[in-house]
Design a protein that fits this description.
Layout lengths: L10 H9 L5 H13 L5 H14 L8 H11 L4 H11 L5 H15 L13 H7 L2 H62 L1
Helix pairs in contact: 3-4, 3-5, 3-8, 4-5, 6-8
Protein name: DUF2062 domain-containing protein
Keywords: Membrane, Transmembrane, Transmembrane helix
Organism: Rhizobium lusitanum
Length: 195
């Protein structure tokens, strides 16, 4: 192979590289941002899609986030790829525990419940195994769903505004650079033809 390492990485080095990249996470975030602003869509479409992905990440329905984000993005005229990127940005194994705890607490505040003790508690693995979602709805899903509404609205509006202006600025600057290059080429061609 052309770009193979002379000394292959050991298993522990590969594992460390996956958990903490050598160049850090900043490079990944920069690539992610560039991928978002370079989407071939209008600033509104990219921002609406990205915001849809962020908003959906606040819901407790972890298995269907991508599907929900795609449907919402389609309904509001957002970019489907941007909605998937929004899901990946906000909903990942690092952020989910914080999202769940935050929505749980907000949901209990809104519903005026005591989040400290539920009596005997519930056996979630047993309920999931039985497929009894009705018993999970009231003590778990309902507070998380209701608690996710305020942060979803706030983060959706903020992310939409930031993404819209970021994409618009990037596309305007890119258009100006391309126009300047075209003018330079035209001037060179005119100078060459006049000689």
């Amino acid at each position: 192979m052309l770009f193979r390492r002379r000394k292959p990485l050991t298993f522990s080095e590969k594992l460390r590289e996956h958990l903490w990249p050598r160049k850090g996470f900043v490079r990944s975030f920069q690539y992610f941002g560039k991928r978002l602003v370079r989407l071939a869509a209008s600033p509104h479409s990219v921002a609406a899609g990205f915001a849809a992905g962020i908003v959906v990440s606040w819901t407790p329905f972890i298995g269907v986030h991508f599907v929900m984000a795609i449907i919402i993005a389609y309904l509001i005229g957002g970019n489907v790829i941007a909605s998937a990127l929004g899901c990946l940005a906000a909903g990942n194994p690092i952020t989910y525990p914080f999202i769940w705890a935050f929505t749980w607490e907000i949901g209990h505040l809104i519903l005026a419940r005591d989040s400290g003790g539920q009596g005997g508690g519930i056996d979630l693995p047993a309920l999931w195994h039985k497929g009894d979602l009705l018993q999970i709805w009231d003590p778990v899903l309902k507070p998380m769903l209701i608690g996710g509404i305020p942060p979803a609205i706030v983060s959706g509006v903020i992310v939409y505004a930031l993404t819209y202006y970021g994409v618009k600025t990037f596309k305007t600057r890119r258009k100006e650079r391309l126009m300047e290059r075209a003018r330079e080429r035209l001037a060179l061609a005119e100078n060459a033809s006049s000689v």
